[in-house]
Queue: 4 jobs
Job 1
Amino acid sequence: MVPGLAPTSALIDPLLVRMMPQNYAAWTGFDALCHGFESYLCKMSSHYNSAMELKVVKMVSDNLREFTYNRMNHKACENMCWAESMAGVSIGFGGGVGLVHGLGHGLSALYDVPHGLASASVTLPLERYNQPSCPQKFAEMAEAMGVDTKGMTKMQASDKWFDEMERLLSDLNIETGNLKERFGLERNKIEYIIKMQYEKDFCVEGNPRNFVFQDCVNLLEDML
Ligand SMILES: [Fe+2]
């Protein structure tokens, strides 16, 4: 990776996104969702970005399936573009991303895994790890995804977010884990990814759970 490499502008056009292959539509659309939920969970999040992120979670949840499989639906394309743009702006308001982007970056850099696919493949186990630190936020995101959480405990409602995410990933045909067979991740590269990439990544600061090196090793090993 080139240090400091970052875009300064983005071209977000509902007509252009119609041209993407189906798998890229699913992966990049999931990335917009990932910006939404990771920024919402982020330690640095503020009321500014939280309000937008919940809307992003709702909009992607409502539109990503249709966007992936029927991109002639202009409304789905437009809504996904809005969600992507809002997620980017709200990161600019101070919400960062976390462990999912952090470890996903390592997979993309070393094994050429498309960014959205990398994040999507590690979301469920990594957010399960984060869940005890902020169950209320997972519960709020489950509501944003359309779950009626009335009468549930905080943890029950929080678990519903994982159910919704599992269903979405399955509908998008995205597998979780199995990183060795799918992308070639080697056990002896795991410490390198964490030391050389994740530890230095801005994602470390924002993740809701504090950084513990061995936990990150274990999480990646469990996804081999
Ligand atoms: Fe991303």
Job 2
Amino acid sequence: MLNKVIEELVYYAKTHLELDDFDAIYIRNKLLAKFNQVEPYEGQIEKQGIKKLDVPDILIQALLSEYGKELDAHEEDSLVSEVMSLLSPMPSQVRERFNEKYNSSPEKATEYLYEISKNNYYVQKTKVLKNKVFTSRDGLEISINLSKPEKNNKDIAKLVGAVSTSYPKCVLCLENLGFEGNAKKAARQNIRFVPLNLGGETWYLQYSPYGYFNRHCIVFSEKHTPMIINRSNLSKLFDFVDMFPHFIIGSNSDLPITGGSILDHEHFQGGDHIFPMMKREVKETFESKKYPEVKIGLLDWYNSTIVLRSKNREDIINLTMNIIDKWYKYDNPDLDIISYEGEVRHNSITPILRKVGKEYLFYVMLRNNRQNDEYPDGIFHAHPEYHHIKKEGIGLIEAMGLFILPARLERQLPLVEGILENHIEPGNYLMMNPDLEPFVPMIEKLRRLEGNPHDLVQKELEDTCRGILDNTAVFKNDEAGRSAFIKFVEKAIK
Ligand SMILES: [Zn+2]
């Protein structure tokens, strides 16, 4: 009975989405009309059960099964997003409540936005919980991403001939607020985000729908302008942690390969998570005569990372600008580091910031995106021998030691284990699973090792993630790399 589900959804919104009794009359009528129902359900609903729900999944399932139409993935997302949006507070109401909560505590404000986003199904908590995460022996966090839906053939067929529009310009544009979506662009009717003032500009805070870590949020500019690392953006990171000291924040670099997937809209990523990198010690310390208050160290980490620690944010920013200035011009052909080819810059940084008490801890990770004949995908990018595990760019989340691996591995790795277990020859397993072709070298290597197949595959996965981080390090963790890194830092902090 559709009108019963509508009644349950309205009650859910009253208990989870701040729906006011007066507005409930209005919203009920909107939903009745939407689903062609002539009158509301008058019977009993399971109020206690609904009140206790952590997520709306079972109500959404009930709605979709009662609705009885054959919807494709996009139509289904769009319908759910529309209904959950109707049940949610208006964006301006979320903004007001967020600000009210902020006045009592920043944590309460971010929790409020998270609760709204989870309760209205924008953050799909159940799907996020499906992700498998484990910690490797050396502290890397490795996750197989099962939460992001993969397109099926029907969805792909719909894309053929679908009209491309430039509205909204990208998934991070402000105009996604309430956007219906289409075959090419995700429905965003139930998204809620709040404005922040960062460096005198309006930016917005939203949660990631497929959070890769606790309270994974995205902070994005009001304007659709390309990613850039400069003084103004660095100081926005500091503004953010001053406002929300319980969150870390970082920016991807402003170059392809070393950056994230979105380069044409300025944004940061943050959340409440201490990444593997942040648990590492400093192995080498330096002093800057110009900025004696800043403790400078090299992090004991795969990627070449300088840590700056101080209560004085201006000193850290000034020092970072010095480092950037020197790094953008730094060449060391012996280590394959070349800063420019013609007008094209290859050096960039990935900046990450957290606050510990009154001190700022700023991580400046040096990156380079140059490609050559040997490594057409990038010299400091996952090398081809690792592409069967991961070939996408290594952005800040992975560079900090949290690996998000593709969902296909959930199917492929157990197959590899079965092949090892049953001593199947390549010709035979490839006939059944041609997509295991890139795994042949790994399988043949593991076949020669002692141990049970599951443990061998697991260890190989960990070694691969570590190998990828070694690939992305501009100064390698060997004698030549270390001494060049030290020399570079000594010059850069002068
Ligand atoms: Zn945009």
Job 3
Amino acid sequence: MPSDYTGNYDLERDFKNIWHPCTQMREHESAPLLLIEKGDGVYLIDRDGKRYIDVISSWWVNIFGHNHPRLNKALKDQLDQMAHVMFAGITHSPAINLAESLVKLTPSNLTKVFFSDNGSTSVEIALKMSLQYWKQVGENQRTKFVYLSGSYHGETLGALSVCGINLFREKFKNVLMENLEVQGPDCYRCPYDLKPESCKAECFEHLEKALEKNRGTVAGVIVEPLVQGASGMKMYSPVYLEKLQEACEAYEVHTVYDEVAVGFGRTGSLFVCDSRGLKPTFLCLSKGITSGYLPLAATLTSDQIYQAFYGEPASMNLFIHSHSYSANPLACACANETLSLLTKNNFLENMKPKIKFLKEAGSSLSEIKWCGEFRQIGMIAAIELVQDQLSKDAFPLKDRVGYKVYLEGLKRGVFMRPLGDVIYFIPPLIITNEEIEIMMNAAFESIEAVLG
Ligand SMILES: Cc1ncc(COP(=O)(O)O)c(C=O)c1O
């Protein structure tokens, strides 16, 4: 039992009719699901009133904590106006305001916003726009995307076609689009034996070679800037992104920045691309956009792309990707409030000492004998557990080390669902130093409890 339930519940009923995502349902025969009834700041509160720090921001979406008074109000105010309306032939102020803010806050080449409702779809849209663009400008042969090993862009079939993690793509590989996987950065197990301080992103040579070899047939390159989330919060140098920008310009291919996970302040700046003068052709946003209140996504692109779709009323050049809940007004209202919270009162500037504190508090994890690497960028941190620090060998899968640490964490009041044996921290940005300390101590104790 992961948590000390005291109530008299029918625990089997919790999963009798529901099939949960990313879950071997049989697990719950022995480990009950956590039934959460309430959220309060960084805390989740279960049916017994037990509080857990939401260490991973409910799958990385929550920026300002649960039950935030200003977000609640923004949502309620919009609800009194209109819950939803279709988004073709009709527009509305929450979406107009949001698009305007996003364009102001992202690189200057991004001037058009296409709304949808989840991260995978924001990627699908970027891929489809890119392909259709090349077709409409007469470059039909540009049909392939280059993606990195270890990359994750969602789980629809298009997004899986640019996924560099076997766990997700293997079962469907026979039906996926044929794209080009290249070896991506792997700083912990760097094949060049370089240290992050002196690295010049030598590993970029793989991508460069792929662009050279496939000159004229590549539509675009897709990356998760700075952090490959699903593959274990693997972090890499911004130099890689600078080289990518140069190469994409030289080979005239699109760059797709998937900032679904890292956008909205996670890395310490609002967006990775904006903080470093990078200019992607497409920028995919979701997750933190509504601070975890409602599903929403946006794909931003340039006027050059937009113009290739702009034609006579009867022309078939239009972009067709229509979801019923595109630009839902309630979600847009939450997004507008999220952006207001993020950009006013020096919120991101004031976060700097907290980022430093997270780094210091987390570095105590490096002392653990099983710590392969402790890594951190902004408010994202992770410890990769290995069975041997020298060889960097992972624990056998069957040992389920990460999962056992997760169960220990629940006992200690932290919800830190791991990625394999990577225990990671991507808490709501409003977490206090005191809560960071509680979270890190709980992680330390949980790892010790499992591995000794
Ligand atoms: C980088 C990245 N892209 C896309 C997605 C897919 O987003 P969603 O789960 O909303 O479809 C995720 C989800 O974790 C992600 O991390």
Job 4
Amino acid sequence: MPIRADLPPEPEFAAPLEAARPSPDTLRLLALRRSTPVKALAEPGPSAEDLDAMLRLAMRVPDHRKLEPWRVLIIEGDARLKLGQILAAARKLRDPDVTDEKLAEEMQLPLRAPVILCVISSPVHDAKKTPVWEQQLSSGALCQNLLIASQAMGWAGVWITEDAAFDSHVHAALGMHGHEQVAGFIYLGTAKEQPTERQRPDVSAKATRWTG
Ligand SMILES: Cc1cc2nc3c(=O)[nH]c(=O)nc-3n(C[C@H](O)[C@H](O)[C@H](O)COP(=O)(O)O)c2cc1C
């Protein structure tokens, strides 16, 4: 059941903040967090108020030199139909022999969830100061913050890219500039079925102690 995000007011610039805050709820959420497969998403989706809150939280992201090298397109309602047409047209250009059936499927893709947040990496070209790679990482962190914030509010979601994220025709139709990339489409809604645990990494193999 989604909850209304009862957020503290935005702190004033230079206001004192907590360096750490023990939060069992946050630890539990992270320990059991799971994306919901996009096929298992359904109505309802987050309200405009929910989206404002989660975007505000998500944009409190590490950002070297405060470049804000990202932006977000909120795609909901009938805009999803327009995106579907764009995806189908892009698919036809990528694959002229595609069947009408596949094109119809492509058109339906954005309807899999009530809300899609398209996170765009929009690096500022001062590469000699903050490398583009760092700016792109900040966009990835923003995507993850969106997943965590939305799930903490009670919404199910998943970060996907699919072919659309890498298609220049889709980029142009979304109004993206040449230097921008899609970091992810965050599909948000309500889970029709609860997800199950997936295979997880062996932490001791992936994180080793470097001793010089
Ligand atoms: C950049 C990025 C792109 C992804 N694209 C897709 C995708 O197109 N389709 C998909 O099924 N999962 C995609 N995933 C994986 C899911 O978001 C998710 O992480 C995965 O299903 C594992 O589930 P978990 O988040 O619960 O660990 C992507 C993940 C990342 C980080």
